Amino acid sequence: MGNLSIFKIVLSTYQIMKLTLTCLASLLLVFSVSAQTTLRGIVTDGSNNGIAGATIKIDESTNSTVSDANGNFSIELTDGYETLIISAEGFQVRKIYLTGQNSITVKMNSLSAGNQINMGIGSQSKDELTSSVSSIDAADVSPAPLINLEQANQGVTAGLFVQNSSGKLGQGTTVRIRGGSSLSASNQPLYVIDGVPLTSGNQSNINPSNIASIEILKDAAATAIYGTRAANGVIIITTKSGNAGEMQINLDYQLGISQTPKFLDIQSGDEHRLQTFESILRGFMIGVEPFTISPEIRIDGTDYTITKEFLDNFYNAGLTDVTIVDDPSNQTFTFNMPSFYSQLDGNTDWQKEVFRNAPSHRANIDVQGGTQQLGYFASVGYTTQEGILIGNKFDRLNGSLSLNSKITDKLSANLNFNYIFTEDNRLNEDQDLGAPLQAIVLPPSDSYDPANNYRLNVRSLEYNPLTEINFADNVATNNSMIGSLGFNYKFSEKVSIDVNGGIDRSDIRAERRQGPETLDGAPNGRSSISEQMVENYVTNGWLTYTPEVSGNNKLSLILGGSYQKSTTSFDFRQANVNSISTLESLTDSDPSLFNEPIQGDANVFLSSYARVSYSIGNLYDIQVTGRMDGSSKFSEDNRFGYFPAVSAGWNIHNMTGFDSPTWSQLKLRASYGLVGNAPTDDFLYRRNYIRTRYNDEDAVEFANLSNENLKWETTSQLNVGIDFGLTAKNITGSVDYYIKTTTDLLFPVPVSQTSGLSTIFDNIGSMENKGFEINISSINVNNTDFSWTTDFNISFNDNVITDLNGEQAIVGVNAFLENRPAGVFYMRKYAGVDPDTGEALYDDGDGGTTDNWEEAPRQEVGNPNPDFFGGLTNSITYKNWEFSTMFQFVGGVDLYFATGEYLANSGILNLGQLTRESNRWYEPGDEAPYPVLNPFQDEPNASTRWLEDGSYVRLKNITLTYNFPEAALSNMGLRNFSIYVGATNLFTITDYIGYDPDVSYFDPLDGIIGQNISRGIDNFTAPQPRIFMSGIKIGF
C-alpha cells in the first residue's frame, strides 16, 4: 500500500472526526446555559420508560431528590457544573458531569443485563471482568437494513474483522477475531446461540430482530472455557426472551431498493471495434520466430507505420476491400471492410444487461410478556430480497419461541427454539464462464438476434449470459433449527446446578437444471440434485458454588462437563436430462446417471472444565480457568488436550485515596492462557477411504494417508488491557494489547506419490498475531430534548508465519511462506513497458528487467491482511427524532484485481477491455503504462499490474427515525409508533479500480486451505449493493 493511500485513509478519518468535534463544540455552545439554579430531567430504562423512585444526588453534597411516578425530577444546582449520582433499584449507578445544561435525560442500565456479561458458561459482572470481551446490544444490530448477522457486526467493535466474499445473496463472509490462527483448519470463530455451539453455519440466518445481545470473547481467559473450539475466538448470541408484564406486540416492516454502487469503465462498441481492427492488423505484423511485432505494415502497396492516428483515420476512411501483405511471410490477404463492420455489430453494455435495481421486503412480528412464573417471547419474520444480479433471489422465514418458567422456588427452566427456512436462487460461481459478471469480458455485440431471440453466438463464443440465467434453475433450500432446553436448580443461595441440551440441525437440498440452450447444458440439458445434512447434539451441565468469604470479598467456583456429537452426510446425483423429475426417476443402474455415493462423517467431543473467580474488596479480581477436551478426530494417544488460563484485574479507581473527580473508572487487566483447534476433516490419524465410481462400477479410493502422531493445534495468548472512564467528559473506553501464538500447525506435507497420494497432514509450523485495539464511547450532549453519543473503534494486527519447517504452499497468486503473513501475494513484479518494442517488462530479481514472463521470478509483493480497520458511529436524538451514521474503514490492505487481468486478455478472441487499456503502446518511443495489443496472447499473465490498494472508508449505515409522541398514540391504543428511512453502503472513498474493495474471493474447490490462502482476490465478484430503505415499527 502506497504512502499516499495511507495518507488518504488517515485524512478521511481525521476529517470525519474533525467534523464530529466541530459539531460537538458548536452544539455545546448552543445548549450550554451557565449559572442555572434548577435542573429538570427524566430517568428512564432501556425502553425509554420512566423509572419511579430513582435517587438523584449531587456529589459531595447533601442535596438530593427522588424521581416521580413517571421518572421526572428537578433539583437545585449551585453553578450548573456539578456531578450527579443517579441510583435506582435493579439498575447500575450512573455518574454524570453537568456542563451547564438545564435539562437532562438519564438512561439507566439494568443490573441483570447491562452490567452482566454472558460468558457462555455463567455470567460475570463488568466490574469484575478480567478478560477481553466486547458487547454488542440489540440497538447496535437492528438499524442495519436487510443484512445478515455477520454484516451487521462489520466495523462495530474492535478486534472483529468482517469481509464479504461477494455481493450475491446467500454468500458467506470471512470473520476473523485478532487474525487467523490456522493454515489448514477453520479460522472462523465459534458461534454459540442460546448455549448451543454451532457447526452448521446457521448464525448467518438468525433473524437480527430477535437478537438481545452479542458477546465477543477475544482473549484466552475469556475463551478457555470452550477449549479446543476457541482458538479463533467465540461469539455468544443471546436471543430475546419474555419477562413478567403485560403482553406486548411489536410489528416491523421494511421496504428496500438495492442498486449497483458502481459500474466499471468498459469499452463502448466503437472503441471495441477499433481495438479489433488494430488486433487484426497487428496479427499480420507478428513474425513466427521470434514472436516480435514490426511497427510497419503494407496495405494496398503502401507502407504504413502503425500509430494511434493511423488507426483512427484508416478505420474511419470508408474503404471496401484492402490488400494486406503479411511481413515476414510476404503473403497477401484481402480484407473486406464492410464484412468486418457487419461482424462487429452492437453496442451492448453487458453490465446493464446483468445488473438491476432490486426490491426487498422484511416483515417481523413478535409477542412477549408473562407472569412471575412464566415469561414468553415468540416471533415470526419473513424476508424476501432480489439481488442486484438478475436471477439472484433470497427468501427467509424465521420462527422463534422462548419460554422462561419458574417451576418452584428452587427450580426454573428455559426453552429456546429457532426455526429457519431459506430458499436461495443461486447463480454460477464467480469464476465460471456462465457467471453473470463474466459477461463483461464479452464483446459489445447485440444480446438478441434479428428475430428477438437470445443470441447464442457472441463473437465465436457459444455463450450468452442471458441464456445462462433464463434457461437455467439453481435453487437451494435449507430447513434448519437451533434449539435448547435448560434447567437450573438452586440447592441454596450458595449452590446451584445448570443442565441443558441443544440441537443444531440443517438439511440443505440444491436442485440445478441447465437447459440445452446453456453452455454446460448443451445439447440435451443437465440436471443435478445434492443433499446435505448437518446435525449437532450437545449436552452441558455445571455446578456453581458461591460461598461466603470474609470482608467485602467474593468467591465463585464452576465445575462442569459437556458432550457433543456432530454428524454430516452428503449425496449427489447428476444426469444429462432437462428436468429434475426425470433425474429423480432414473435408477442407479441407468448408464446416463452419475451418482456419487453417499458420504458421511461423525465426530465426538467430550469435555470437562472448571473456573474459579475471586474478588478482593472491589480492588482485585483473579480468575483461573481450565478445560480438558477429548476428540474422536485424534488417535488415543493424542485424543485429549488441556487448556488452562489465568487472568487478573486491578480496579485502581476503587483504591483508598484515589478519589479523583476525573476518573469514573480506571482498571488494569492481564491474562494468559491456551486454547486449541482441531482439523476440519475427521480421523486424519488413520487411513480413510471414500466410495467412488470406476468404469461405471462401485469402487473405493484413498482419502488420506494416516498419521497417528497428529495432535491439537495450540494457541497461547497474552493480553494486557486497560478500561477507563472520564467523568467530566462522559467518555469510556478500553485499550488492549495482545500476542497470540499458534504452534503445532497442521499442514499437508509432500510425500512420494508412490504412496498413492501426494501429501500427508502433520504438525509442523507456528504462526503469530500481535496487535492492539481501542474502543472509545462518549456522551457528547445529554439534555432532555437533545442527546448525542459517539462510538469509535480501531484495531491493528500483524500476522506472520514464524515456522513452516521449510515448506511452502502456493495457490494462484497467494502463498504460505515462512516469516511472511499468511496468504501473502506472491507473483511477478510488473516493471512497465519497453518503449522500443511495446512488450511488458517484469522485474528479473537482479535489479534488471525481462520481457519473458516465465523467466521472471515470483516475489512477495503485497499483503491481503489489513494493517488496521474500525468504525465510527454517531447517534443523535432531538425530541422525537433519531439520527445515526456509521462509518467503516479498512487500511493497509492489498487486493488482486483478477477481473482486470482477464479483461486485459488481447488474444485472438479479442474480448472486451477496460477503457484505460487504450492508453497502451502504439509505436517506438511511446512511454505508455500498458503494453502493445498482442492478438496471439491468449493467456493472461498474473503480475503486480493488477495488484491494487484496497483501503477504503465507507458510510456503512445512515438512518433517520421519527417516534410519534405518546400523547398522539394514547387514543389509538398504541404503545409506540415510529417511521424510519435509511441507506446502507451509501458511498465509499477508495482508490480501488474494481467494483468493491470489500471482497475476498476463493474457489470452493480449493477447500478450507484454499479459503485460508486465497485472500484478497476479486475474480468477477459482485459488489455489496447500495440499499435505500424505509420502514415502520408499531408497538401495542
TrEMBL record:
Q: What is its main location?
A: membrane
Record Pfam families: CarbopepD_reg_2, Plug, TonB_dep_Rec_b-barrel
Q: Where in the cell is it found?
A: Cell outer membrane
* UniProt keyword 4Fe-4S, yes or no: no
**GO cellular component entries:** cell outer membrane
Name the Gene3D superfamilies on file. Answer: Carboxypeptidase-like, regulatory domain, TonB-dependent receptor, beta-barrel domain, TonB-dependent receptor, plug domain
Query: Which InterPro entries does the UniProt entry name for this protein?
Result: Beta-barrel_TonB, Beta-barrel_TonB_sf, CarboxyPept-like_regulatory, Plug_dom, Plug_dom_sf, TonB-dep_OMP_SusC/RagA, TonB-dep_OMP_SusC/RagA_CS, TonB-dep_rcpt-like
Q: Give the TonB-dependent receptor plug domain ranges.
A: 126-234
State the annotated membrane topology for this chain.
Multi-pass membrane protein
**What is the designated name of this protein?**
TonB-linked outer membrane protein, SusC/RagA family
What is the native source organism of this protein? Answer: Ekhidna lutea
